[in-house]
Design goal:
Layout: H1 2-29, E1 39-45, E2 61-67, E3 75-77, E4 84-87, E5 91-95, E6 107-110, E7 115-117, E8 123-125, E9 130-135, E10 153-154, E11 169-177, H2 185-188, H3 195-198, E12 205-212, E13 218-229, E14 232-240, E15 254-262, E16 268-273, E17 281-282, E18 286-289, E19 300-305, E20 311-313, E21 318-324, E22 332-337, E23 342-347, E24 352-357, E25 359-362, E26 370-371, E27 377-378, E28 387-390, E29 398-401, E30 403-405, H4 411-446
Parallel strand pairs: 11-19, 11-20, 15-17
Antiparallel strand pairs: 1-2, 3-30, 4-29, 5-6, 5-9, 5-25, 7-8, 9-10, 9-24, 11-21, 12-13, 13-14, 14-15, 15-16, 18-19, 22-23, 23-24, 25-28, 26-27
Helix pairs in contact: 1-4
């Protein structure tokens, strides 16, 4: 009977609009949830077979729930550099635990990028999901795969420290007084290599600078200059204190020696070795510092540049500048994420080191993903397989540090839907009431 089918249609209307109300309620409740993707309900008519042209067999309505996952929310600025957002396509790859992912393991995908560093050094978002990344090798290379999770591991910065970098290159920019009287061997004694280091002969000019050994400890080396003829100077480099180098105590800590020659215009003509039978190293190239065992430091090669900044003018002695690379050990002071997903550690010694590259997963049909815990999603047959790429590559979006993706819920639209759903629910209940009255009228016919 058509009255009964109308009654059932009203019931289906109540059920469908109840589902719609539940979805709208979820949307409104999560209007401020980071990375939340609003749901929606589409209604589909149920059509029953008709037995005749004179009566109608009502079918009702079927609710079809869906989520608008591909619709991006607005990006909002955050004060934390570990808060991450994706501008464009893609999802962060996360896991519910801090174990390395196996292929097809407990992998989840999310747009909720409110990450912080936990007590164990892992990057975890507010929902407790662990961020995954490609580790950067010591050579700066990244092993990646667009389909495999075997190269991905949880991002962990515990134990990350700035490595000490020993000094390898030294430059000295100074002026040697051209009016300096030449050293006279006849009256002041013959010069032998190492005399400036031991103090047997006092250099006409001396300058020292600080270098770092392999442990990052600061060490002092000095440079002594002795004018031995027109435009010609003897140069020696020596360690201070002399006990810092192997065998240095008996030699004044001498490291290398050579001859510096100037042109008539005061510029450097050449830097040459000392040209004697002495075992002291030549200063015109790289020389090795053999640190004493007590320092614990490894042997260290130093290249000295005296050609770029040394001058011989009629001005007083003076050092314009000294340059030396190498840095002491540093502490981790911050993390920086570049647009290509490279997570870089910043250290107190001014150095930076890439730790991980954060990949993004893309899908042919992201709206086919299945919602899971913590605002994350799982793959389904409808979504298709994931494709893993670096940010700004392969259709993946750009990573933004210090920002979060807001919910894509439009509150005005949700309140409008709430009103229409309420009216539709009331209308469906009216169908049931009317059908009930008609059945009651039919029962009264028998009386």
């Amino acid at each position: 009977m058509s009255i009964y089918t109308a009654l059932r249609a009203g019931v289906s209307g109540l059920t469908a609009n109840s589902s719609a109300l539940a979805v709208i309620s979820d949307n409104i409740a999560n209007v401020n949830t980071v990375g939340y993707k609003r749901g929606g309900v589409d209604f589909s008519a149920l059509v029953n077979a008709q037995n005749s042209n004179t009566t109608y067999n009502a079918g009702g309505v079927l609710p079809l729930t869906r989520q608008q996952i591909s619709l991006q929310g607005s990006l909002e600025q955050s004060r934390s550099t570990t808060d991450l957002a994706i501008s464009g396509e893609g999802f962060f790859i996360v896991s519910t635990n801090n174990q390395q992912l196996a292929n097809g393991g407990s992998v989840l995908f999310t747009r909720a990028g409110s990450f912080t560093i936990d007590a164990d050094g892992f990057m975890v978002n507010a929902q407790g999901l662990y961020l995954q990344g490609w580790p950067v090798g010591a050579d700066g290379g990244v092993t990646s795969s667009p389909t495999s999770l075997s190269a991905i591991e949880p991002v962990n910065i515990s134990g990350v420290g700035g490595l000490a970098e020993p000094t390898a290159n030294v430059g000295l920019n100074a002026n040697l007084f051209s009016g300096q009287a030449d050293y006279n061997p006849a009256t002041q004694g013959a010069y032998d290599v190492g005399d400036l280091a031991t103090g047997t002969i006092t250099p006409h000019f001396e300058s020292s600078l600080e270098v770092y050994d392999s442990l990052g400890a600061p060490r002092t080396i000095a440079f002594g200059f002795l004018k031995t003829g027109p435009n010609t100077w003897v140069v020696e480099s020596y360690a201070r204190p002399q006990s810092n180098i192997t065998g240095g105590a008996g030699t004044g800590g001498v490291l290398a020696a050579g001859v510096l020659t100037f042109n008539s215009d005061g510029t450097v003509q050449s830097v040459a070795g000392h040209g004697t039978a002495s075992a002291v190293q030549d200063i015109d190239g790289a020389f090795t510092i053999d640190w004493a065992a007590s320092t614990g430091a490894a042997d260290q090669d130093i290249t000295l540049n005296l050609t770029a900044g040394m001058t011989q003018f009629a001005n007083n002695y003076g050092v314009t500048s000294v340059t030396a690379d190498g840095v002491p050990p540093g502490d981790l002071v911050g993390l920086v994420l570049e647009g290509d997903g490279m997570l870089t550690a910043q250290f107190s010694n001014g150095r930076a080191r890439a730790l991980y590259q954060i990949p993004l997963a893309t899908f042919l049909n992201p709206n086919g993903l299945k919602p899971d815990v913590g605002g994350a999603f799982r793959t389904t047959l409808e979504s298709g397989l994931y494709n893993i790429n670096a940010a700004n590559a392969g259709g993946a979006g750009r990573l933004v540090s210090g920002a979060l993706e807001a919910s894509n819920v439009d509150l005005a639209a949700e309140f409008t839907s709430l009103i229409t759903t309420q009216r539709a629910y009331s209308a469906s209940s009216r169908i049931i009431t009317t059908a009930d009255e008609m059945l009651e009228e039919l029962l009264r016919v028998k009386r």
